[in-house]
Amino acid sequence: MSDSKVPVLTRQLVKLPAAPIRIVHIGLGAFHRSHQAWYTQKAGDHSKWGIAAFTGRKPDAAVALSAQDGLFTLIDRSARGDSFEVIGSITEALDGADVNRLCELVSSPETAIITLTITEAAYGLDSRGRFTAETSGFRRDLAALKGTSGTRATPDTPIGRLVLALAARKDTGAGPIAVVSCDNLSANGEVARRAITGLAEAWDAGLANWIKTNVSFVSTSVDRITPRTTDEDISEVQDSRGYRDTSPVVAEPFHDWILSGEFPKGRPQWEDAGAVIVDDIEPYENRKLWLLNGAHSLLAYAGQLRGHATVAQALDDALCRNAVESFWDEAAKHLGSGDLHIPEYRKALSSRFSNARIAHHLSQIAADGSTKLRMRALPVLTAERSQGRSGASSALVLAAWIDYVAEREELQDPLSDAIHEVKRALGPGPERVAALLDLISHGLGQDPQLVSLVDSLTGTFTQAAGATSSTSLENAHPTSGRNS
Ligand code: CS2
Hints:
The chain is of the alpha/beta class. The chain contains 21 helices and 11 strands.
Protein backbone atom coordinates (compact mmCIF):
# COMPACT_ATOMS: atom_id res chain seq x y z
CA MET A 1 0.00 0.00 0.00
CA SER A 2 1.37 3.43 -0.87
CA ASP A 3 2.04 5.64 2.13
CA SER A 4 -0.77 8.06 1.26
CA LYS A 5 -3.34 5.23 1.48
CA VAL A 6 -2.23 4.05 4.92
CA PRO A 7 -4.58 5.45 7.57
CA VAL A 8 -3.11 7.52 10.39
CA LEU A 9 -3.50 6.21 13.93
CA THR A 10 -6.41 8.13 15.48
CA ARG A 11 -9.01 7.49 18.17
CA GLN A 12 -11.66 7.04 15.54
CA LEU A 13 -9.57 4.41 13.74
CA VAL A 14 -9.01 2.27 16.81
CA LYS A 15 -12.22 3.24 18.67
CA LEU A 16 -10.43 4.37 21.80
CA PRO A 17 -12.25 7.15 23.71
CA ALA A 18 -10.29 9.88 25.51
CA ALA A 19 -10.49 10.00 29.31
CA PRO A 20 -11.06 13.31 31.16
CA ILE A 21 -7.82 15.02 32.16
CA ARG A 22 -6.97 14.46 35.82
CA ILE A 23 -3.20 14.06 35.50
CA VAL A 24 -0.80 16.70 34.21
CA HIS A 25 2.62 15.47 33.11
CA ILE A 26 5.72 17.53 32.44
CA GLY A 27 8.45 15.92 30.31
CA LEU A 28 6.63 14.18 27.46
CA GLY A 29 9.25 11.77 26.13
CA ALA A 30 9.61 8.08 25.37
CA PHE A 31 10.00 7.07 29.02
CA HIS A 32 6.81 8.79 30.16
CA ARG A 33 4.94 6.98 27.41
CA SER A 34 6.40 3.51 28.10
CA HIS A 35 5.94 3.89 31.85
CA GLN A 36 3.37 6.22 33.46
CA ALA A 37 1.13 6.38 30.36
CA TRP A 38 1.25 2.58 30.06
CA TYR A 39 0.50 2.05 33.81
CA THR A 40 -2.43 4.49 33.58
CA GLN A 41 -3.89 2.64 30.60
CA LYS A 42 -3.62 -0.65 32.50
CA ALA A 43 -5.36 0.68 35.64
CA GLY A 44 -8.84 -0.80 36.09
CA ASP A 45 -10.31 2.71 36.37
CA HIS A 46 -8.39 4.11 33.38
CA SER A 47 -11.52 5.57 31.81
CA LYS A 48 -11.55 8.20 34.59
CA TRP A 49 -7.89 9.24 34.28
CA GLY A 50 -6.65 11.07 31.21
CA ILE A 51 -3.22 12.69 31.00
CA ALA A 52 -2.32 16.12 29.61
CA ALA A 53 1.37 15.72 28.77
CA PHE A 54 3.63 18.73 28.19
CA THR A 55 7.00 18.46 26.47
CA GLY A 56 10.14 19.65 28.25
CA ARG A 57 12.27 21.64 25.82
CA LYS A 58 11.03 21.20 22.25
CA PRO A 59 7.42 21.07 20.98
CA ASP A 60 8.10 18.21 18.47
CA ALA A 61 6.69 15.28 20.44
CA ALA A 62 3.51 17.24 21.18
CA VAL A 63 3.03 18.18 17.52
CA ALA A 64 3.52 14.58 16.38
CA LEU A 65 1.25 13.06 19.03
CA SER A 66 -1.49 15.67 18.61
CA ALA A 67 -1.78 14.68 14.95
CA GLN A 68 -2.81 11.21 16.16
CA ASP A 69 -5.05 12.28 19.07
CA GLY A 70 -2.34 11.54 21.67
CA LEU A 71 -2.24 7.86 20.65
CA PHE A 72 0.93 5.86 20.06
CA THR A 73 1.94 2.24 19.71
CA LEU A 74 3.99 0.60 22.43
CA ILE A 75 6.34 -1.98 20.91
CA ASP A 76 7.00 -4.49 23.68
CA ARG A 77 10.38 -5.91 22.64
CA SER A 78 11.52 -9.14 24.24
CA ALA A 79 14.46 -11.31 23.23
CA ARG A 80 11.95 -13.52 21.38
CA GLY A 81 10.02 -10.90 19.39
CA ASP A 82 7.77 -7.84 19.38
CA SER A 83 4.16 -7.31 20.39
CA PHE A 84 2.15 -4.13 19.87
CA GLU A 85 -0.41 -2.19 21.86
CA VAL A 86 -2.03 1.19 21.26
CA ILE A 87 -1.81 3.39 24.36
CA GLY A 88 -4.63 5.91 24.72
CA SER A 89 -4.13 7.47 28.16
CA ILE A 90 -2.66 10.73 26.80
CA THR A 91 -5.72 12.86 26.16
CA GLU A 92 -3.82 16.00 25.23
CA ALA A 93 -0.19 16.41 24.11
CA LEU A 94 1.12 19.94 24.52
CA ASP A 95 4.15 22.12 23.92
CA GLY A 96 5.84 22.82 27.26
CA ALA A 97 6.00 26.49 26.30
CA ASP A 98 2.18 26.66 26.45
CA VAL A 99 2.31 27.93 30.00
CA ASN A 100 -1.24 29.31 29.85
CA ARG A 101 -2.69 25.85 29.23
CA LEU A 102 -0.45 24.43 31.97
CA CYS A 103 -1.78 27.00 34.45
CA GLU A 104 -5.34 26.34 33.34
CA LEU A 105 -5.03 22.57 33.81
CA VAL A 106 -3.06 22.66 37.06
CA SER A 107 -5.58 25.10 38.56
CA SER A 108 -8.55 22.90 37.65
CA PRO A 109 -10.18 21.16 40.67
CA GLU A 110 -10.42 18.02 38.50
CA THR A 111 -6.63 17.75 38.31
CA ALA A 112 -5.35 15.50 41.09
CA ILE A 113 -1.77 14.62 40.11
CA ILE A 114 1.24 16.20 38.43
CA THR A 115 3.88 13.70 37.29
CA LEU A 116 7.39 14.71 36.26
CA THR A 117 10.08 13.22 34.03
CA ILE A 118 12.22 16.32 33.61
CA THR A 119 15.69 14.65 33.96
CA GLU A 120 17.90 14.51 37.04
CA ALA A 121 19.68 17.70 36.07
CA ALA A 122 16.50 19.81 36.01
CA TYR A 123 16.03 19.84 39.80
CA GLY A 124 18.88 22.34 40.31
CA LEU A 125 20.92 20.26 42.75
CA ASP A 126 24.39 21.62 43.48
CA SER A 127 27.49 19.54 44.31
CA ARG A 128 26.33 19.42 47.93
CA GLY A 129 23.04 17.87 46.82
CA ARG A 130 21.10 21.04 47.74
CA PHE A 131 18.75 23.06 45.57
CA THR A 132 20.30 26.20 44.19
CA ALA A 133 18.36 28.97 42.47
CA GLU A 134 21.73 30.29 41.30
CA THR A 135 21.84 28.56 37.93
CA SER A 136 21.22 30.80 34.94
CA GLY A 137 17.92 29.02 34.12
CA PHE A 138 16.44 29.63 37.56
CA ARG A 139 17.76 33.20 37.70
CA ARG A 140 15.98 33.93 34.44
CA ASP A 141 12.81 32.22 35.66
CA LEU A 142 12.83 34.19 38.87
CA ALA A 143 13.11 37.43 36.93
CA ALA A 144 10.21 36.29 34.75
CA LEU A 145 8.11 35.34 37.78
CA LYS A 146 8.83 38.68 39.44
CA GLY A 147 7.93 40.46 36.23
CA THR A 148 11.37 42.02 35.94
CA SER A 149 12.51 40.21 32.84
CA GLY A 150 11.58 42.71 30.16
CA THR A 151 10.17 40.88 27.15
CA ARG A 152 10.28 37.36 28.65
CA ALA A 153 7.13 37.08 30.65
CA THR A 154 7.01 33.37 31.47
CA PRO A 155 9.46 30.92 33.05
CA ASP A 156 11.44 28.52 30.85
CA THR A 157 12.47 25.65 33.10
CA PRO A 158 10.05 22.85 34.00
CA ILE A 159 10.33 23.74 37.70
CA GLY A 160 9.75 27.44 36.97
CA ARG A 161 6.69 26.67 34.87
CA LEU A 162 5.32 24.37 37.53
CA VAL A 163 5.79 27.00 40.25
CA LEU A 164 3.80 29.47 38.15
CA ALA A 165 1.06 26.87 37.60
CA LEU A 166 0.88 26.07 41.33
CA ALA A 167 0.43 29.79 41.99
CA ALA A 168 -2.56 29.66 39.64
CA ARG A 169 -3.96 26.68 41.59
CA LYS A 170 -3.54 28.55 44.86
CA ASP A 171 -5.43 31.52 43.36
CA THR A 172 -8.35 29.44 42.13
CA GLY A 173 -8.67 27.59 45.46
CA ALA A 174 -8.65 24.21 43.69
CA GLY A 175 -7.18 22.54 46.78
CA PRO A 176 -4.45 20.01 47.42
CA ILE A 177 -2.60 18.08 44.75
CA ALA A 178 0.13 15.42 44.49
CA VAL A 179 3.43 16.02 42.67
CA VAL A 180 5.04 12.72 41.67
CA SER A 181 8.66 12.80 40.53
CA CYS A 182 9.51 9.94 38.17
CA ASP A 183 13.17 10.86 37.68
CA ASN A 184 16.06 8.64 38.76
CA LEU A 185 17.06 10.47 41.93
CA SER A 186 17.18 9.16 45.46
CA ALA A 187 14.33 10.61 47.53
CA ASN A 188 13.01 12.20 44.34
CA GLY A 189 9.89 13.45 46.15
CA GLU A 190 12.05 15.35 48.64
CA VAL A 191 14.27 16.67 45.85
CA ALA A 192 11.18 17.90 43.99
CA ARG A 193 9.87 19.51 47.18
CA ARG A 194 13.16 21.34 47.72
CA ALA A 195 13.33 22.60 44.14
CA ILE A 196 9.70 23.71 43.93
CA THR A 197 9.46 25.31 47.37
CA GLY A 198 12.99 26.71 46.95
CA LEU A 199 12.08 28.60 43.79
CA ALA A 200 8.66 29.58 45.18
CA GLU A 201 10.28 30.99 48.34
CA ALA A 202 12.61 33.14 46.27
CA TRP A 203 9.53 34.58 44.51
CA ASP A 204 6.61 34.69 46.95
CA ALA A 205 6.66 33.48 50.57
CA GLY A 206 2.85 33.14 50.58
CA LEU A 207 2.99 30.69 47.68
CA ALA A 208 5.79 28.72 49.36
CA ASN A 209 3.61 28.36 52.47
CA TRP A 210 0.62 27.27 50.41
CA ILE A 211 2.77 24.63 48.70
CA LYS A 212 4.00 23.36 52.07
CA THR A 213 0.44 22.68 53.25
CA ASN A 214 -1.27 21.74 49.98
CA VAL A 215 1.20 19.84 47.84
CA SER A 216 2.05 16.24 48.63
CA PHE A 217 5.41 15.17 47.20
CA VAL A 218 5.37 11.48 46.34
CA SER A 219 8.65 9.59 45.92
CA THR A 220 8.88 6.86 43.32
CA SER A 221 11.31 4.37 41.90
CA VAL A 222 10.60 3.89 38.19
CA ASP A 223 11.95 1.25 35.86
CA ARG A 224 11.55 0.29 32.23
CA ILE A 225 14.36 0.32 29.70
CA THR A 226 13.22 2.48 26.79
CA PRO A 227 15.68 2.99 23.93
CA ARG A 228 15.24 5.64 21.24
CA THR A 229 12.71 4.88 18.50
CA THR A 230 14.26 4.30 15.06
CA ASP A 231 12.89 4.64 11.51
CA GLU A 232 12.83 0.82 11.34
CA ASP A 233 10.49 0.76 14.35
CA ILE A 234 8.14 3.20 12.61
CA SER A 235 8.11 1.03 9.45
CA GLU A 236 7.62 -2.12 11.49
CA VAL A 237 4.45 -0.73 13.09
CA GLN A 238 3.06 0.29 9.70
CA ASP A 239 3.85 -3.10 8.15
CA SER A 240 2.41 -5.19 10.94
CA ARG A 241 -0.50 -2.98 12.08
CA GLY A 242 -1.60 -1.39 8.84
CA TYR A 243 -1.73 2.18 10.16
CA ARG A 244 0.77 5.03 10.22
CA ASP A 245 2.18 5.97 13.62
CA THR A 246 5.01 8.53 13.54
CA SER A 247 5.71 8.10 17.25
CA PRO A 248 5.79 4.51 18.45
CA VAL A 249 7.79 3.80 21.57
CA VAL A 250 9.94 0.71 22.16
CA ALA A 251 10.33 -0.84 25.61
CA GLU A 252 11.45 -4.03 27.26
CA PRO A 253 8.70 -6.26 28.71
CA PHE A 254 9.94 -5.63 32.27
CA HIS A 255 8.40 -2.73 34.18
CA ASP A 256 8.42 -1.63 37.79
CA TRP A 257 6.93 1.26 39.77
CA ILE A 258 7.26 1.70 43.52
CA LEU A 259 5.54 4.70 45.10
CA SER A 260 5.48 6.22 48.56
CA GLY A 261 3.38 9.20 49.63
CA GLU A 262 -0.10 10.70 49.78
CA PHE A 263 -2.52 11.36 46.93
CA PRO A 264 -4.97 13.86 48.50
CA LYS A 265 -7.29 13.82 45.46
CA GLY A 266 -6.97 10.14 44.58
CA ARG A 267 -5.05 8.28 41.88
CA PRO A 268 -5.58 5.60 39.24
CA GLN A 269 -5.44 1.99 40.40
CA TRP A 270 -1.90 1.59 39.15
CA GLU A 271 -1.54 -1.56 41.29
CA ASP A 272 -3.61 -3.34 38.62
CA ALA A 273 -0.55 -3.05 36.38
CA GLY A 274 1.88 -4.11 39.11
CA ALA A 275 2.70 -0.80 40.85
CA VAL A 276 3.56 -1.25 44.52
CA ILE A 277 2.81 1.27 47.27
CA VAL A 278 5.26 1.18 50.19
CA ASP A 279 5.93 3.13 53.39
CA ASP A 280 9.70 3.10 53.07
CA ILE A 281 10.95 3.51 49.53
CA GLU A 282 14.67 3.91 50.24
CA PRO A 283 15.77 0.25 49.96
CA TYR A 284 13.97 -0.12 46.59
CA GLU A 285 15.37 3.14 45.33
CA ASN A 286 18.89 2.19 46.27
CA ARG A 287 18.57 -1.23 44.68
CA LYS A 288 17.42 0.27 41.39
CA LEU A 289 19.68 3.34 41.34
CA TRP A 290 22.84 1.47 42.30
CA LEU A 291 22.43 -1.85 40.56
CA LEU A 292 20.62 -0.86 37.38
CA ASN A 293 21.49 2.79 36.88
CA GLY A 294 24.97 2.52 38.42
CA ALA A 295 25.85 -0.35 36.08
CA HIS A 296 24.32 1.60 33.18
CA SER A 297 26.57 4.59 33.86
CA LEU A 298 29.61 2.37 34.26
CA LEU A 299 28.86 0.69 30.93
CA ALA A 300 28.13 4.05 29.28
CA TYR A 301 31.62 5.39 30.04
CA ALA A 302 33.69 2.19 30.06
CA GLY A 303 31.84 0.80 27.06
CA GLN A 304 32.29 3.88 24.90
CA LEU A 305 35.96 4.11 25.86
CA ARG A 306 36.25 0.52 24.60
CA GLY A 307 34.50 1.33 21.32
CA HIS A 308 31.04 -0.12 22.05
CA ALA A 309 27.75 1.53 21.13
CA THR A 310 25.06 -0.31 23.10
CA VAL A 311 24.53 -1.76 26.57
CA ALA A 312 24.35 -5.32 25.24
CA GLN A 313 27.62 -4.92 23.32
CA ALA A 314 29.43 -3.42 26.33
CA LEU A 315 28.21 -6.18 28.62
CA ASP A 316 29.59 -8.75 26.23
CA ASP A 317 33.09 -7.31 26.75
CA ALA A 318 34.72 -9.16 29.64
CA LEU A 319 36.52 -6.09 30.96
CA CYS A 320 33.26 -4.15 31.25
CA ARG A 321 31.28 -7.16 32.47
CA ASN A 322 33.74 -7.89 35.29
CA ALA A 323 33.75 -4.25 36.32
CA VAL A 324 29.94 -4.38 36.55
CA GLU A 325 30.00 -7.58 38.61
CA SER A 326 32.59 -6.09 41.02
CA PHE A 327 30.53 -2.92 41.36
CA TRP A 328 27.43 -5.02 42.07
CA ASP A 329 29.38 -6.98 44.72
CA GLU A 330 30.27 -3.74 46.47
CA ALA A 331 26.78 -2.28 46.20
CA ALA A 332 25.13 -5.50 47.40
CA LYS A 333 26.95 -5.23 50.74
CA HIS A 334 24.91 -2.10 51.47
CA LEU A 335 21.52 -3.29 50.28
CA GLY A 336 20.62 -5.46 53.26
CA SER A 337 19.45 -8.97 52.71
CA GLY A 338 16.20 -10.90 52.48
CA ASP A 339 13.32 -8.90 51.06
CA LEU A 340 15.20 -7.29 48.20
CA HIS A 341 16.20 -10.62 46.57
CA ILE A 342 19.50 -9.20 45.34
CA PRO A 343 20.90 -12.36 43.65
CA GLU A 344 17.67 -12.75 41.61
CA TYR A 345 17.61 -9.03 40.84
CA ARG A 346 21.19 -9.17 39.53
CA LYS A 347 20.44 -12.19 37.41
CA ALA A 348 17.39 -10.50 35.92
CA LEU A 349 19.42 -7.36 35.22
CA SER A 350 22.06 -9.34 33.37
CA SER A 351 19.44 -10.81 31.10
CA ARG A 352 17.64 -7.44 30.63
CA PHE A 353 20.95 -5.78 29.69
CA SER A 354 21.82 -8.63 27.31
CA ASN A 355 18.58 -8.30 25.32
CA ALA A 356 20.36 -7.51 22.07
CA ARG A 357 17.05 -6.73 20.35
CA ILE A 358 16.90 -3.59 22.51
CA ALA A 359 19.54 -1.28 21.04
CA HIS A 360 20.02 0.87 24.13
CA HIS A 361 22.67 3.40 23.14
CA LEU A 362 25.42 4.17 25.63
CA SER A 363 25.58 7.77 24.38
CA GLN A 364 21.98 8.23 25.58
CA ILE A 365 22.89 7.04 29.09
CA ALA A 366 26.19 8.99 29.28
CA ALA A 367 24.49 12.41 29.46
CA ASP A 368 24.44 14.39 32.74
CA GLY A 369 27.11 12.21 34.37
CA SER A 370 28.02 14.65 37.13
CA THR A 371 24.47 14.52 38.52
CA LYS A 372 23.85 10.85 37.80
CA LEU A 373 27.05 9.56 39.44
CA ARG A 374 26.22 11.46 42.61
CA MET A 375 23.18 9.16 43.01
CA ARG A 376 24.41 5.99 41.35
CA ALA A 377 28.02 5.34 42.37
CA LEU A 378 28.94 7.79 45.11
CA PRO A 379 26.64 6.37 47.83
CA VAL A 380 28.26 2.93 47.39
CA LEU A 381 31.76 4.42 47.50
CA THR A 382 30.91 6.41 50.64
CA ALA A 383 29.39 3.36 52.34
CA GLU A 384 32.44 1.25 51.49
CA ARG A 385 34.88 3.83 52.82
CA SER A 386 32.89 4.35 55.99
CA GLN A 387 33.42 0.64 56.67
CA GLY A 388 37.17 0.95 56.18
CA ARG A 389 37.36 -0.50 52.66
CA SER A 390 38.74 1.25 49.59
CA GLY A 391 35.60 1.13 47.46
CA ALA A 392 37.77 0.39 44.43
CA SER A 393 34.93 -0.90 42.26
CA SER A 394 32.76 2.17 42.73
CA ALA A 395 35.84 4.39 42.43
CA LEU A 396 36.34 2.75 39.03
CA VAL A 397 32.96 4.10 37.89
CA LEU A 398 34.18 7.63 38.70
CA ALA A 399 37.52 6.96 36.97
CA ALA A 400 35.72 5.77 33.83
CA TRP A 401 33.68 9.01 33.78
CA ILE A 402 36.87 11.06 34.22
CA ASP A 403 38.49 9.32 31.23
CA TYR A 404 35.32 9.73 29.22
CA VAL A 405 34.96 13.48 29.84
CA ALA A 406 38.70 13.91 29.19
CA GLU A 407 38.36 12.70 25.63
CA ARG A 408 35.07 14.39 24.68
CA GLU A 409 34.87 17.83 23.11
CA GLU A 410 31.08 17.91 23.34
CA LEU A 411 29.48 17.04 26.65
CA GLN A 412 25.85 17.02 27.67
CA ASP A 413 26.10 17.82 31.35
CA PRO A 414 24.73 20.61 33.57
CA LEU A 415 28.37 21.22 34.60
CA SER A 416 29.89 20.99 31.10
CA ASP A 417 31.40 24.51 31.32
CA ALA A 418 33.08 23.73 34.64
CA ILE A 419 34.32 20.35 33.34
CA HIS A 420 35.86 21.97 30.25
CA GLU A 421 37.42 24.63 32.46
CA VAL A 422 39.11 21.94 34.60
CA LYS A 423 40.33 20.17 31.45
CA ARG A 424 41.82 23.40 30.11
CA ALA A 425 43.48 24.35 33.39
CA LEU A 426 44.86 20.98 34.51
CA GLY A 427 46.54 18.16 32.61
CA PRO A 428 45.87 14.48 33.36
CA GLY A 429 46.85 13.44 36.88
CA PRO A 430 45.75 13.76 40.50
CA GLU A 431 45.00 17.49 40.43
CA ARG A 432 42.59 17.15 37.55
CA VAL A 433 41.04 14.07 39.18
CA ALA A 434 40.54 16.02 42.43
CA ALA A 435 38.91 18.96 40.63
CA LEU A 436 36.55 16.70 38.67
CA LEU A 437 35.61 14.71 41.78
CA ASP A 438 34.73 18.00 43.48
CA LEU A 439 32.25 18.70 40.71
CA ILE A 440 30.49 15.42 41.38
CA SER A 441 30.33 16.10 45.09
CA HIS A 442 31.69 19.01 47.07
CA GLY A 443 34.76 18.02 49.13
CA LEU A 444 35.31 14.67 47.41
CA GLY A 445 38.52 15.91 45.81
CA GLN A 446 39.90 16.90 49.22
CA ASP A 447 40.44 13.28 50.22
CA PRO A 448 44.02 12.50 49.06
CA GLN A 449 43.63 8.75 49.49
CA LEU A 450 40.54 8.70 47.32
CA VAL A 451 42.06 10.99 44.72
CA SER A 452 45.08 8.74 44.45
CA LEU A 453 42.87 5.64 44.17
CA VAL A 454 40.71 7.16 41.42
CA ASP A 455 43.79 8.50 39.64
CA SER A 456 45.34 5.02 39.69
CA LEU A 457 42.19 3.64 38.08
CA THR A 458 42.06 6.08 35.19
CA GLY A 459 43.18 4.40 32.02
CA THR A 460 41.61 1.06 32.96
CA PHE A 461 39.38 1.09 29.89
CA THR A 462 41.48 3.24 27.60
CA GLN A 463 44.75 1.35 27.97
CA ALA A 464 43.45 -2.18 27.89
CA ALA A 465 43.81 -3.98 24.56
CA GLY A 466 40.86 -3.66 22.11
CA ALA A 467 37.39 -4.87 22.92
CA THR A 468 37.08 -8.54 23.73
CA SER A 469 34.09 -10.79 23.96
CA SER A 470 33.06 -12.64 27.09
CA THR A 471 34.45 -15.82 25.60
CA SER A 472 37.98 -14.60 26.31
CA LEU A 473 37.65 -13.66 29.94
CA GLU A 474 40.41 -11.47 31.19
CA ASN A 475 41.20 -10.02 34.52
CA ALA A 476 39.20 -6.84 34.90
CA HIS A 477 40.08 -6.21 38.51
CA PRO A 478 40.00 -2.48 39.17
CA THR A 479 43.70 -2.35 39.99
CA SER A 480 44.52 -2.96 36.32
CA GLY A 481 44.52 0.82 35.82
CA ARG A 482 47.05 3.39 34.71
CA ASN A 483 49.42 3.50 37.65
CA SER A 484 49.24 -0.07 38.80
C1 CS2 B 1 19.45 5.11 32.16
C2 CS2 B 1 17.99 5.09 32.56
O1 CS2 B 1 19.69 6.92 30.66
C3 CS2 B 1 19.94 6.49 31.80
O2 CS2 B 1 20.58 7.15 32.62
O3 CS2 B 1 20.22 4.55 33.18
O4 CS2 B 1 17.20 5.86 31.72
C4 CS2 B 1 17.44 3.65 32.63
O5 CS2 B 1 17.35 3.08 31.34
C5 CS2 B 1 16.09 3.61 33.28
O6 CS2 B 1 16.17 4.15 34.55
C6 CS2 B 1 15.55 2.18 33.30
O7 CS2 B 1 14.45 2.11 34.10
